[in-house]
Amino acid sequence: MSLAAERLGCVRAGREVLAGVDLEVTPGQALCVVGPNGAGKTTLLRCLQGLVRNATGEVAVDGRPVRGMAPRELARHLAYVPQSGPSRLALTVFDLVLAGRRPHLGWRPSARDLEAVEAVLGEFGIADLAGRDLDELSGGQRQKASLARAFAQEPRYLLLDEPTSSLDVRSQLEVMELLRRALALHRVGAVLAIHDLNLARRYADVALLLDAGRPAGCGDPCDVLSPGPIRAVYGVDMACVPVNGCSALFALGPASSPGNENPR
Amino acid sequence: MSPTASLPRPAGEVYRGMVARRAGLTLALAGLALAAAIAALAVGATDIGPLSALASLAGGKGAEGAIVRALRLPRVVMGGLVGMGLAVAGTSTQALLRNPLASPFTLGIASGAGFGAVLAIFFAGGHAKAAVAGCSFTLALATALFTLAAARSRAARPETLILSGVAFMFLFSALSSFVQYVATMDQVYEMVFWHFGSLSKAGWTEIGLASLCILLPLPWFVRSSWDLNLLLAGDEAARSAGVDVARLRFTGVVLAALMTAGAVCFTGVIGFVGLVAPHMARMLVGSDHRFLLPASGCLGAALVLGADVLGRTLWPPQVVPIGIMTSFLGVPFFFSLLRSRRRDYW
């Protein structure tokens, strides 16, 4: 059982924006897709949902091809968390999360739907925000609500586009901790597009490094996201600094600029 | 990190409270629409008490019965129908295009309808009521379809739809102006008068046709309430929750256009309702379309009927055209609600 993609590719306006990407996520696992702006992270997420019409390659959820699956059927397998949650809306947190139950929902939500929403709100620590409108919330709270909506959908796999961008450091950590816990608890696999290399090293089981649409490394996050590959893909010199028994990346400077030829 | 001091109410209970409140408010708005309808039956050049107005509906004799049944009832039914139709079409268009400024008229429908009416008046004259209504209906719907077709390459993008709607709006306005430029004085008078909006053109045939256009799409919108809610969370999120976004948007816009065309072709442009009733309803009951759609429909009906009552009582026996009166009544009401909110609600 897995979400698996083989030889994913996509050509847009004569340019290869994605080529030869393979990946596999099993339930409970988190795979981080990392790469510079425009490397194809968002396109990859769209391909995984079968949204890119001229995409090549195969995507399968638990052995069934995504292509040709009815939207409602696909929704029971895959949920997507957009980059920044809805903001300027008089939609309450409970309404948003309940709407995530749509694949299971009749016109009138059942007691089971309400319980599911209540449970997932509690899990993400936002039960006390249930009646608040989304536009009243902080970025971190909104992101948690957005995650709660995706989990209320009860998917097998989750696709997240930059779940921590525009969050403060505390919210980033909270969101990632909550996400990992929920992935383990519900046995849900996740593909995350993410910019923060250290968050990826810390929270991912697998990292996929993209360079102009092509895979530049896939495997253990601490190997893939190490100074060598990062320098090759981003053109940035990195130092790997030991911290409390693990290690963190520290950016030294653009690799091309003179004076950085010999870091330190 | 969980709050320990005072145990908060469980989220499900909070939600049940919200639902009860929304249902209550929606019922109250339905009551308001009903009250406006009764007032519109009772009030006018001849004042008939609300009770005797209702009694004459049931079959009262004499002048009062004739006035209520033959003159006022069609007017009231048409007013309620048109107000509801425009409001529901506006509410769903705002959600479908995820834009607070959207209304069916954003898609160029009003200018299409206006151009149709102007053309019919130019070629057939203002007395040819069927031609005016038919022509304006056809062009209103055609404009919406043009807009959709022009944006079709990216039909899923709301901004493209709005932009192409605005472009068609300018095109049809210019065409209307051109026809007015070459028309005779009498024709121009008829054209301008059509634009003011009027409920007095309504007979039972027109009401029958309008209610076909306005009532038939309603079940689809009610059934799509959850999809509209999800659309507010963004196209991608909605799609991944199982909503066929492109199809929902296309069908929804076509049905909203049908409702709008059915409303404006018989009454002229009562534009403001479609933009403002949805916002007022949203401020009151929130964005859950299961409640928002009926609430906004009731509010739209109440607004048009209330405007009609005022329009007929301000300078009797003169009747201020309904399009003008609706804006006069709606704008202050809208601003008072807008100011009473602590913050943005969209």
Residue share in helices of chain A? 25-40%
Gross morphology of chain A is globular
**Count of β-strands of chain A:** 12
Helix count of chain A? 9
Low-confidence stretches of chain A: 259-264
CATH superfamily of chain B: ABC transporter involved in vitamin B12 uptake, BtuC
Number of domains of chain B: 1
The CATH class of chain B, by name, is: Mainly Alpha
* Proportion in β-strands of chain A: 25-35%
The dominant shape of chain B is globular
Structural class of chain A: alpha/beta
In the CATH scheme, the class of the largest domain in chain A would be Alpha Beta
Give the CATH superfamily of the largest domain in chain A.
Answer: P-loop containing nucleotide triphosphate hydrolases
Give the uncertain stretches of chain B in residue-range form.
Answer: 1-5
Helix content of chain B: over 70%
| Elements of chain B, N to C (H/E) | HHHHHHHHHHHHHHH
What is the architecture of the largest domain in chain A at the second tier of CATH?
3-Layer(aba) Sandwich
Main sheet overview of chain B: none
Description of the structure:
The complex is a heterodimer of chains A (264) and B (346). Chain A is α/β, with parallel strands linked by helices and 264 residues long. Helices cover 32% and strands 29% of the residues of chain A. Chain A is built from 9 helices and 12 strands. Chain A has helices spanning 41-48, 71-75, 93-99, 111-123, 139-152, 169-186, 197-203, 221-224, 227-234; strands at residues 3-12, 15-25, 30-34, 56-61, 64-65, 78-81, 157-161, 189-193, 206-211, 214-219, 236-243, 246-254. Chain A has a 6-stranded mixed beta sheet, with helices on both faces. A 4-stranded antiparallel beta sheet of chain A has the order 2-1-4-5, with helices on one face. In chain A, helix 4 (111-123) packs across helix 5 (139-152) and helix 5 (139-152) runs parallel beside helix 6. The longest helix of chain A has 18 residues, at 169-186. The radius of gyration of chain A is 19 Å and the shape is globular. Residues 259-264 of chain A have low confidence and may be disordered. Chain B is mainly α and 346 residues long. Helix content of chain B is 77%, strand content 0%. Chain B is built from 15 helices and no strands. Chain B has helices at residues 11-42, 50-59, 62-96, 109-124, 129-150, 158-182, 185-196, 204-215, 218-223, 225-231, 235-240, 245-267, 271-285, 289-313, 322-340. In chain B, helix 3 (62-96) crosses helix 13 (271-285). Chain B starts with 10 loop residues before the first helix and ends in a 6-residue tail after the last helix.
